């Protein structure tokens, strides 16, 4: 039965991905490259920015306004080269990290922030000119370092969502397609408190995680728990989760709109150089938070009585109930933790690539891939699967077009499962 559910899940995931690609094209307001130029706290106006395709064809150009903001629409998802014309910088201002040319990838429906950290110093020459004082172009080491870090950062975002969905599947057997909307819900709550109400992003994020955990508890208390008591089969519940996912997605679209927006804090934060790595401080803080939360949840599963009870329910609910464990209470706790983890994933993802009504759905297939690759229902498997998926997605852009990087990750998933169907840390089960 569980194998049938997993196979049907994979089929429906492909169907939902097809619908999602169509929905993205229909509802997105268009991809764009954008950014804010600041020298310290001072906006830098009048600077020309140009965008090109990977083949060198011009896409568009923009000039930073009085607030230092600029935006260039691009025709489709892909990787573009963005050049800052250093000859238009004010006297005494230069690109502090020596990278006036960047190649950021743009996903479907995404407004991608491009950061050019500025600082005081002698102005360099225009990009491409081999003159004394001209900044060096990014080296291969810089590119590998950027891909490595972005892969690790994205892996942690996926892992937060994957751990929650793995715990829910392990204790209930439910493949919850609405989990992506729980990720989006967390980001939207943080956006509400940060942008609309005006609270700091850190406070808004904490409130969003608390609300996400409460939403997970509320879902199981009033909805999924009721279906379990009625002994609704898992396939029916999975189809219900798909309907819930679609409903929530368009509720988010109605209230939030189709465009992506940035948090009010840390929107255009310049990166700092750490050896070959160029990392914005906000990303380091998000990484530290994600690692602490993942380690804490994993330790709780292994070293606490509630964690042992959760693993007992995942192994055999009937035997756990006969041993005196309140199965419904454990499942409700898992839904609460899963909601909080999903909300935290959404907050970090929103700080990384802006907030949009489809952001959770767009990573849902990758979350399922990570959980399946690591082994369904295993917490450590979800973490390892997320690491493999995140790193492969980024490094695959060295050999395949950026718009195909997700396809490449899923191809690797299929190849690995052909040789190890139970996943990396999954256990073999005897049938018959």
Automatic annotation (TrEMBL):
Has UniProt tagged this entry with the keyword Cell inner membrane?
A: yes
Question: What stretches pass through the bilayer?
Answer: 147-170, 182-215, 235-256, 284-302, 333-352, 364-393, 399-419
Alphabetically ordered keywords of this record: Amino-acid transport, Cell inner membrane, Cell membrane, Membrane, Signal, Transmembrane, Transmembrane helix, Transport
What InterPro entries would the database entry show? Answer: ABC_transp_permease (IPR001851), BCAA_transport_permease (IPR052157), Ig-like_fold (IPR013783)
Annotated coiled-coil positions are none
Membrane protein topology class = Multi-pass membrane protein
Database matches in Pfam families: BPD_transp_2
> What residue range is the signal peptide?
1-28
Task: Give the subcellular location.
Answer: Cell membrane
Report the family membership: Belongs to the binding-protein-dependent transport system permease family. LivHM subfamily.
How is this protein named in the record? Branched-chain amino acid ABC transporter permease
């Amino acid at each position: 039965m569980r194998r049938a559910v997993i196979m049907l899940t994979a089929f429906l995931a492909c169907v939902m991905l097809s619908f999602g690609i169509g929905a993205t094209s229909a509802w997105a307001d268009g991809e764009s490259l954008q950014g804010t130029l600041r020298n310290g706290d001072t906006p830098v106006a009048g600077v020309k920015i140009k965008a090109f395709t990977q083949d060198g064809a011009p896409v568009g150009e923009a000039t930073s306004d009085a607030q230092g903001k600029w935006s260039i629409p691009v025709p489709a998802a892909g990787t573009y080269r963005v050049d800052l014309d250093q000859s238009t910088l004010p006297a005494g201002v230069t690109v502090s990290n020596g990278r006036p040319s960047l190649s950021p990838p743009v996903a479907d429906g995404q407004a991608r922030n491009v950061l050019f950290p500025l600082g005081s110093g002698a102005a360099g020459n225009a990009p491409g000119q081999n003159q004394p004082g001209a900044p060096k172009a990014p080296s291969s080491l810089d590119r590998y370092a950027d891909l490595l870090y972005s892969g690790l950062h994205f892996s942690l975002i996926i892992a937060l969502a994957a751990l929650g969905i793995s715990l829910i599947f392990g204790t209930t057997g439910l493949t919850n397609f609405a989990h992506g909307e729980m990720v989006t819900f967390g980001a939207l709550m943080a956006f509400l408190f940060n942008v609309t109400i005006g609270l700091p992003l850190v406070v808004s994020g904490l409130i969003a995680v608390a609300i996400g955990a409460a939403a997970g508890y509320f879902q199981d208390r009033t909805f999924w728990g009721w279906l379990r008591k009625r002994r609704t089969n898992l396939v029916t519940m999975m189809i219900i989760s798909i309907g819930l996912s679609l409903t929530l997605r368009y509720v988010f679209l109605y209230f939030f709109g189709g465009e992506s927006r940035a948090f009010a804090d840390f929107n255009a934060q310049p990166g700092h150089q750490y050896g070959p790595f160029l990392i914005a401080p906000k990303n380091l803080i998000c990484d530290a938070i994600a690692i602490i939360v993942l380690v804490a949840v994993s330790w709780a599963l292994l070293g606490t009585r509630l964690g042992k009870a959760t693993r007992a329910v995942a192994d055999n609910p009937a035997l756990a109930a006969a041993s005196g464990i309140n199965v419904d209470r454990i499942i409700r706790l898992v839904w609460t933790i899963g909601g909080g983890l999903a909300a935290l994933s959404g907050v970090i993802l929103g700080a990384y690539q802006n907030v949009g009504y489809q952001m959770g759905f767009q990573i849902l297939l990758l979350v399922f891939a990570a959980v399946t690759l690591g082994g369904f229902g295993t917490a450590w498997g979800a973490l390892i699967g997320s690491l493999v998926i995140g790193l492969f997605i980024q490094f695959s852009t060295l050999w395949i077009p950026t718009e195909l990087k997700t396809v490449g990750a899923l191809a690797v998933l299929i190849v690995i499962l052909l040789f190890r169907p139970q996943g990396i840390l999954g256990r073999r089960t005897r049938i018959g």
